[in-house]
Design goal:
Blueprint: E1 2-9, H1 15-28, E2 32-39, H2 43-51, H3 57-70, E3 74-77, H4 87-94, E4 99-103, E5 116-117, E6 120-121, H5 132-137, H6 144-159, H7 162-165, E7 168-171, H8 174-181, E8 192-194, E9 213-216, H9 225-232, E10 239-242, H10 248-257, E11 261-265, H11 269-278, E12 281-284, H12 294-301, E13 306-309, H13 312-317, E14 324-327, H14 332-344, H15 347-364, H16 367-382
Parallel strand pairs: 1-2, 1-3, 3-4, 4-7, 7-8, 9-10, 9-12, 10-11, 12-13, 13-14
Antiparallel strand pairs: 5-6
């Protein structure tokens, strides 16, 4: 199969870029894969890209030329914002090429992209014709103007039917799928399929795990960092924190004041693998819906039990008492209680949770399983047999 993958890189590297590259390499082992990439710019170039977002004829010309050159059987879009724009969908569709689009975030439903604003889950845009509340609050980049322009672009393409031109949407979790299906987006439910991301197999689970807990991720409010610190301050429970972000200084201060908290800084992928293999459990206290947290998949691959907030994607991924535990989101007391309870459980129980977590990875999140799901989606989109 000849596949053209279109992806736009944000100014700062992110998880979407990783998934794009992983899937490109994975598919290239058996399929003919071509890529067309764009890059968001800073300064006046970025403003120019944003201005053309609703109908970017410049990007459209590149896409038309790529399709005419490569003659793909299918186009797979990962990210359109901002240097590409929705016009890419219309061009591919009018040239008779089926379109698959991965929904890495909630941008088609709300200008926030995360359904999170000012420390709270923000769902006011899900069932509206136009997200006036999101615009009023300036949920995108803390700017009413930028939010309004992004909202207008998405609204325009709802009205002219662009989003309905996509043949298949890939959502990362069943939770995400239901949000899109039940929203005002206006796309038929049968166009959505769930296909998670995958991670490369890492170090095997350690036979002698320590009693310390681990947090890995961006040190920011939506990741529940404050909840994490509140849960461990003035306790004897050991916590290691790895990552970087706007709350870095706050984490460092907490580590200096509390000898049970250790800040590891930014770690390499190898070092993260070792930390996952050695901790008693990974903590994931995120207070927004998330897309598909790669950290959780990495924990499953390492056979590491997880304790997560009972919210959004985490609720879909973590089955209570099987591959991990859940606690009430944004509740430091609930997390502290779960941590204490986990430390009281016996070793055979923890080992069973560990085996279940590894089994979850082997069943759903390996490269081979992901490739099978991806090709099944492609062939279903084209109406051909696998």
């Amino acid at each position: 199969m000849r596949i053209l993958i279109i992806h736009n890189f944000y100014q700062q590297p992110g998880g979407e870029d990783v998934v794009f590259e992983q899937e490109r390499v994975l598919l290239s082992t058996t399929e003919e894969v071509f890529t067309l990439v764009f890059q968001n710019r800073k300064g006046w170039r970025g403003a120019w890209q944003t201005l053309w977002l609703p109908w970017n004829v410049w990007a459209g010309r590149r896409i038309r030329k790529a399709i005419e050159r490569y003659q793909p059987d299918l186009v797979h879009i990962h990210n359109l914002h901002y240097a590409v724009g929705p016009l890419a969908i219309r061009i591919a569709s009018r040239l008779g090429v089926p379109v698959v689009m991965t929904l890495h975030n909630y941008r088609l439903l709300c200008p926030s992209a995360t359904l999170f604003h000012q420390g709270q889950v923000f769902t006011a845009s899900l069932h509206t014709n136009f997200p006036w509340e999101a615009v009023r609050k300036g949920v995108h980049s803390h700017s009413v103007v930028k939010t309004a322009w992004l909202a207008f672009s998405n609204w325009l393409h709802r009205k002219v039917g662009t989003w309905r031109m996509v043949d298949r949407y890939i959502t990362l979790t069943d939770f995400s799928k239901q949000l899109f299906v039940n929203s005002s987006l206006g796309v038929a439910a049968e166009k959505f399929i769930t296909k998670p991301n995958f991670v490369v197999d890492g170090p095997e689970s350690s036979a002698s795990r320590g009693d310390h807990f681990l947090f890995i991720g961006r040190l920011s409010a939506e990741k529940g960092v404050q909840v994490l610190l509140d849960a461990f301050t003035r306790t004897d429970h050991q916590l290691r924190i790895a990552g970087d972000g706007p709350l870095r200084e706050q984490v460092i201060a907490a580590a200096q004041a509390s000898p049970n908290i250790t800040y590891l800084g930014n770690l390499s992928r190898t070092a993260i693998g070792h930390q996952l293999a050695e901790c008693t459990a990974l903590l994931f206290p995120s207070i927004w819906f998330e897309g598909l947290p790669m950290t959780l998949l990495e924990a499953f691959a390492a056979g590491t039990p997880v304790i997560v907030s009972d919210l959004g994607a985490m609720r879909s991924l973590v089955h209570e008492g099987q591959n991990g535990w859940r606690f009430a989101a944004n509740d430091a007391t609930a997390l502290r209680q779960k941590v204490a309870e986990w430390l009281r459980t016996d070793r055979p129980y923890k080992m069973q949770i560990s085996r279940n977590a590894r089994g979850e990875y082997e069943q759903y999140y390996t490269a081979s399983q992901n490739k099978k799901l991806l090709l099944t989606c492609y062939h279903a989109t084209k109406g051909t047999a696998l």
